[in-house]
Amino acid sequence: MRAQVTGDPAAAVAEVHDGDVVMIGGFGDAGMPVALIDALIAQGATDLTVVCNNAGGGDHGLAALLAARRVRRIICSYPRQVDSWVFDGLYRDGDIELELIPQGTLAERMRAAGAGIGGFFCPTGVGTPLTEGREVREIDGRTYVLELPLRGDVALVGAHRADRAGNLVYRKTARNFGPVMATAAERTIVQVSEVVELGGIDPETVVTPGIYVDTILDLSLAEAVAR
Amino acid sequence: MRAQVTGDPAAAVAEVHDGDVVMIGGFGDAGMPVALIDALIAQGATDLTVVCNNAGGGDHGLAALLAARRVRRIICSYPRQVDSWVFDGLYRDGDIELELIPQGTLAERMRAAGAGIGGFFCPTGVGTPLTEGREVREIDGRTYVLELPLRGDVALVGAHRADRAGNLVYRKTARNFGPVMATAAERTIVQVSEVVELGGIDPETVVTPGIYVDTILDLSLAEAVAR
Amino acid sequence: MSRPRLDASTVVEHLDRGPLDRVELARLVARDIPDGAYVNLGIGQPTLVADHLRPGSGVTLHTENGMLGMGPEARGDEVDPDLVNAGKIPVTEVPGAAYFHHADSFAMMRGGHLDVCVLGAYQVSYAGDLANWHTGRPGAIPAVGGAMDLAIGAKDVVVMMTLFGKDGAPKLVPACTYPLTGVQCVSRVHTDVATFHVTPAGVAVVETFGMTAAEILSRLTPGD
Amino acid sequence: MSRPRLDASTVVEHLDRGPLDRVELARLVARDIPDGAYVNLGIGQPTLVADHLRPGSGVTLHTENGMLGMGPEARGDEVDPDLVNAGKIPVTEVPGAAYFHHADSFAMMRGGHLDVCVLGAYQVSYAGDLANWHTGRPGAIPAVGGAMDLAIGAKDVVVMMTLFGKDGAPKLVPACTYPLTGVQCVSRVHTDVATFHVTPAGVAVVETFGMTAAEILSRLTPGD
After folding, report:
1. Which of B35, D13, D71, D143 is 20 to 30 A (C-alpha) from A151?
2. What is the pTM of this model?
């Protein structure tokens, strides 16, 4: 169904529930949907499983969500950063579960979820501790491990611009996980710097078609509301 | 390695060999690389396996390649068209082999080849004659059939515009199979209406990154040569 | 598999009229498409449904050859050989359209993101099996296109067909005799004389046109 | 697994000098990257290689967070928080760049389309096994990022490291004791004192710096 546009961050994340699997876009801070995360913290949903490439840096965004103790488990490829002290502390104290997945497998498992693929044979991580005990198969002389789709209840995505049909474009490497998470989650909530009228995005340049977008937080409206 | 640009159709297809698996872009005539196919007919390679959504229409392009009896086997989803008389005749006379694959599975098998996926469990065609006798698996309550990657020796792709780094953009629904075939073939040969300098294509709008492109036939040069 | 079930508590019989013609059938199918839905209309008769979508319904049309926001068939100067629908007919784009390649387009279909697809059929079984790609006749050249992907992909697979063939044989059958397109995938069957919902318990007649539900049932199961 | 093999017929010994420093090592790695190659440079020391690519070499840099045509680190006004490399350091784009999402970026890597990747390592085995993501030390927080994808994806996986650890222990070993990143994936090992090629027969020393091949071999296999 057609995407809804709002300027109210609270309304945008109203339907996130305790125990949800929440996919959060971004690679470090690039593409991280900070306004949506802040709204989610205020909203109060807890016992979340977060899927995100990193485990947050500094004290803002995902790190703030972790610090608020809303996340039971994080599925990511690279939790350790110079400024990942919030995650590091929780992890060392046993207060958060970590599932580590190679970055490309993380992306591909979400793509599989979005693309209706039941599973795929992946060469990444074969013979390493990260695929230990898993089903392997030799195909055409190469060994692969079976990977299953990774689905989300909600995706929080930071994009650059949307049109009223929900089509999205991103900026530079802030594109990263947003497009694939938008396909993998039951409900996709996006924050953008502006929403333009139909026709305002060239159809040849759309990165995420509107079919994958449920709710758009228009930050230009949100700022107007805040003022 | 960096893409080579040429205005000479013969040079563009010089390295296609007898027995090659040749992927040919296009959905009907939209995106069909007719100049490259004509050059391939003149070049003479034979005993080809062609992967293409359709089996050619009218007497031009792929139909002409079939009429020249260069194709032993065709792998496609939709051979039958109102004007597919060339294919129809060859097929009825037993002069061409046909492997029929659901359109999305055709695309996904090529994507798998390009993406290093060894195989994937696909829900399409389960319980139908097109997947009879194949390995099936129930995952999460749904039945899937195992599909394997589909690789090409060569892909012939019709795009709209290239830059000197080989980045491609397409036009409207002529995009179709080109981007995925470019990833699935050992060598990708593209025809474009023009090649622009570096910086002439916005990096945000590139559909096929140059890494997937080996040879570019610049039709504006080809016309200049022909004149 | 269970027989077609007649749920008398919900059936609406339109007996003051004859069967639906093609245009009326298209209009009926269009009526059942929710506002804001993403919809794929199959080649042939289903294409007619587009003409009956309410302006302002916010329905977005998908064409499997790589587009959301497909507009009406192109006329005159609008014809662009690079812009065609799944039947290779030149079409137009509406504002807010998006193009994507074939792997992405079928990921969208297979991944269950389309709300509705409308397909023609040779046969639908009481269990919702669909046969619409191949007659299986000797000499017929098979072609499947995107039919199997649509059948398993869309949230709602709606079939549009006449209920009986030219020879009078029902197309809603206990088990398909034609090669299958998909298994237990159809959710609704719109025909000229009746509309059926496919449920886990079987097929329910929900609306009839020019015939009573009892008449339809007896013609569907003449041997009973 | 076979021992490191010394192929005396091809080794070049540079004995009029000491070991390579970090800059010299980066220059050497850069020298071996073919013109026109698509290359991913791992986080840390491998990043230095970019500074030594010959202008006009036509080498295109890939960063796994979604870009081909990555330029040098951004300075001053060039810094854009939306444009970072795999180490989250602000970078620039060169003309002819392209952006793509993560699934597409790793499809490119996993699909074998990158010509070369250059990675740091804790250990490389004689068979070309790579360990570079986790020390396995108690309390260490594991993080893998794109290391495993690069290890199995690039046509040539080139390792850059010192040959011996601070404690003198060789990092080129009969079998890795650290958790593996990839199995039999390394094709070339560039170190401060020697360059090795990994072949199906084992590891061949091809060039040395400040030590003879014989010395290196004896330090690698002290127990022999």
Report:
1. D143
2. 0.97
